[in-house]
């Protein structure tokens, strides 16, 4: 059973003479070791790792073998070799006791994770100590969880000990009667901009409070800061012990039966409202969404002058259960495939899931896999439920995301970081017109779906291929090296 762990070095060194496959095997083996005592850890890089992939072993047809086959990782392995300049600067930055950065993170779990990652990087840029981030209550889901409820605080502080100083609370000497909260950050801010804007204030007052960080930090950072982002996302942000144990317990119940697919279906009510799309459940349900959207036009994202049909064909809508079922069949998934559905309660309840359940009877969720009230403490905690989904999805043989989003991007990068596990992104703009064409045979439909997605199944894809990609979603080449 592979689980969270700790490796004993400040940086995850790049392999030199060891073969890539052997290096990755030793990386995962180290990650499964239970002999490491946390008390001994000083500078650590704890790794979140999945259960091993099953591969296409057993009594499968050729089509099924192709479906379960893992992509070629091309020899890429984790590599967090920080420069000598970065490590020299760490001696001073990691001991900072005069300047403090407080960050308030908002949104759902993975939106919060992104902001926490950026908070660490910004504290490094400004050479300030970071107070454990404050999680703003989520008004959509009513989740008032604190950082320590979701994440392992001690592990977070220990893992980043050599990079920034992390403290559990702001010293009393830095409390002031009137605190300025910086909310208006532009997009794509650079380290130079941050220093020019905040260093003088931070040096004078000793305190900087920031809110609204979501996706504001530039995606194109110096190599050392990109590596730091990976270190935070894949090593430091370990879920709290109770969540971690339950998540892996559920993952084992799926894994022990053989390969499985995890799907993040975005069928929640708020998603339909924000995307401006039709639910596919009929006029009654679409009317409910339309009324809420009309009363809260600010919720709608994207272009206002597009029709429902135009939004769908432009790839702006999540795949509904019927479309996901046909997509899976088009990729060659057998009807016996075991499917784990991640995500919140779908709008329309069981009716929303019927088309997928009909084609793939072995459909489960965390709610159907738990026993004896295991999930009861978390039922009103959306972020903790999302964390459980994250763990089970990370260990799946195949992960499919129906509609982008922060969780999809987080798992895309995480699955790449631990060996390029199969990850399929539906090419909605290219494939949906074929869904409408009744003249296409099932055989031809399968051929088209497989061709459209042959190059998007989790193979190494350098972040540098496109500007403004996030290293957390595309860790090659900054955080992974090729043997």
UniProtKB/TrEMBL annotation:
<dbReference type="InterPro" id="IPR024709">
    <property type="entry name" value="FucosylTrfase_pln"/>
</dbReference>
<keyword id="KW-0472">Membrane</keyword>
<protein>
    <recommendedName>
        <fullName>O-fucosyltransferase family protein</fullName>
    </recommendedName>
</protein>
<dbReference type="GO" id="GO:0016020">
    <property type="term" value="C:membrane"/>
</dbReference>
<dbReference type="Pfam" id="PF10250">
    <property type="entry name" value="O-FucT"/>
</dbReference>
<keyword id="KW-0735">Signal-anchor</keyword>
<comment type="pathway">
    <text>Glycan metabolism.</text>
</comment>
<keyword id="KW-0328">Glycosyltransferase</keyword>
<keyword id="KW-0119">Carbohydrate metabolism</keyword>
<keyword id="KW-0808">Transferase</keyword>
<keyword id="KW-0812">Transmembrane</keyword>
<dbReference type="InterPro" id="IPR019378">
    <property type="entry name" value="GDP-Fuc_O-FucTrfase"/>
</dbReference>
<keyword id="KW-1133">Transmembrane helix</keyword>
<comment type="similarity">
    <text>Belongs to the glycosyltransferase GT106 family.</text>
</comment>
<dbReference type="GO" id="GO:0016757">
    <property type="term" value="F:glycosyltransferase activity"/>
</dbReference>
<keyword id="KW-0294">Fucose metabolism</keyword>
<keyword id="KW-0325">Glycoprotein</keyword>
<dbReference type="GO" id="GO:0005737">
    <property type="term" value="C:cytoplasm"/>
</dbReference>
<dbReference type="GO" id="GO:0006004">
    <property type="term" value="P:fucose metabolic process"/>
</dbReference>
């Amino acid at each position: 059973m592979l689980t969270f762990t700790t490796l004993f070095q400040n940086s995850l060194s790049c392999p030199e003479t060891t073969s890539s496959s052997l290096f990755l095997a030793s990386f995962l083996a180290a990650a499964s070791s239970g002999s490491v005592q946390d008390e001994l850890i000083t500078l650590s890089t704890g790794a979140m790792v999945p259960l091993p992939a099953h591969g296409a072993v057993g009594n499968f047809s050729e089509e099924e073998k192709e479906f379960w086959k893992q992509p070629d990782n091309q020899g890429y392995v984790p590599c967090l070799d920080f420069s000598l300049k970065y490590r020299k600067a760490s001696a001073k930055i990691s001991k900072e006791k005069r300047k403090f950065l407080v960050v308030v993170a908002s949104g759902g779990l993975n939106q919060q994770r992104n902001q926490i990652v950026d908070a660490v990087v910004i504290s490094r840029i400004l050479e300030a100590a970071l107070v454990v981030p404050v999680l703003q209550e989520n008004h959509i889901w009513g989740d008032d969880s604190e950082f320590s409820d979701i994440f392992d605080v001690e592990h977070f502080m220990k893992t980043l000990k050599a990079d920034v100083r992390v403290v559990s609370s702001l010293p009393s000497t830095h409390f002031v009667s009137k605190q300025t909260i910086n909310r208006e950050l532009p997009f794509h801010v650079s380290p130079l901009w941050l220093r020019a804007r905040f260093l003088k204030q931070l040096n004078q007052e000793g305190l900087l409070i920031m809110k609204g960080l979501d996706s504001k930090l530039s995606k194109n950072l110096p190599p050392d800061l990109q590596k730091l982002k990976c270190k935070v996302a894949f090593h430091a942000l370990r879920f709290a012990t109770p969540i971690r144990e339950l998540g892996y317990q559920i993952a084992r119940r799926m894994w022990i039966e053989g390969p499985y697919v995890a799907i993040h279906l975005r069928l929640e009510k708020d998603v339909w409202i924000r995307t401006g799309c039709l639910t596919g459940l009929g006029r009654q349900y679409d009317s409910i969404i339309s009324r809420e959207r009309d009363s809260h036009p600010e919720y709608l994202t994207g272009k206002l002058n597009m029709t429902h049909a135009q939004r769908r064909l432009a790839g702006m809508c999540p795949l509904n259960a019927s479309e996901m079922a046909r997509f899976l069949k088009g990729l060659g998934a057998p009807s016996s495939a075991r499917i784990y559905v991640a995500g919140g309660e779908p709008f329309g309840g069981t009716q929303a899931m019927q088309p997928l359940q009909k084609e793939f009877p072995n459909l489960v969720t965390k709610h159907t896999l738990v026993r004896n009230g295991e999930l009861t403490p978390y039922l009103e905690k959306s972020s903790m439920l999302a964390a459980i989904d994250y763990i089970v999805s990370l260990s799946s043989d195949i992960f499919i995301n129906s509609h982008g989003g922060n969780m999809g991007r987080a798992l895309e990068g995480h699955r790449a970081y631990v060996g390029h596990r199969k990850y399929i992104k539906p090419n909605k703009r290219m494939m949906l017109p074929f869904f409408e064409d009744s003249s296409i045979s099932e055989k031809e439909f399968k051929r088209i779906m497989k061709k459209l997605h042959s190059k998007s199944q989790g193979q190494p894809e350098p972040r540098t291929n496109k500007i403004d990609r996030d290293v957390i979603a595309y860790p090659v080449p900054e955080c992974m090296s090729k043997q």
